[in-house]
Amino acid sequence: MIGKLRRGVDRLIDRIRPSRIRPAEPPETFVDAEGREVRVRPYREEDFEGLVEMYDEFDPELRAQGAPPIGTGNVEAWIDDLLDGVNVVAIHDGQPVGHVSFVPDRTDRHELAIFVHQEYQHAGIGSRLVANGLGYAREQGVRYVWLTVESWKRGIQRFYSRAGFSTVNPMGAAHRMSRTL
Length: 181
Fold this sequence. Notes:
By secondary structure, the protein is of the alpha+beta class. 33% of the residues lie in helices and 29% in strands. The chain contains five helices and eight strands. An eight-stranded mixed beta sheet has the order 1-2-3-4-5-6-8-7. Strand 7 (166-169) and strand 8 form a beta hairpin. Helix 2 (48-56) crosses helix 3. 30% of the residues are buried.
């Protein structure tokens, strides 16, 4: 109960006076808002099965624009595609609980995709993933990052604004946001 109240107050403070999310370089270990020790680091080959499991367990109601896909085979193929880019994972108790990917789009730009398992959301992991992901992507030579977010998800848009993204196309059901590194 107190934890929920604290998170509510923290979210209110973030809306009034949001803190910036600045690129950082992984690895980073921190304690999230629920008291769990989480390590954010670049993806390793041995993370594959854990990511498949994380995405297989992902709540379908929380999917964004059809991702992650449903079904183990579809998840494996989708992760294989994501691995064409720069990837960073959040690990708790040896298992991935979050993942950010920067996928090249054939125009020398990279699309950002981030997912945090529903049991780990609203605890600060997404902010750390984005910060470390942006820093690692920059280190790996990524220069321009873009994403799309549904137009009605104002909180998510504010989150990305805190990470330096600007809306470049506010038309339609999804807004395109981007930033340079």
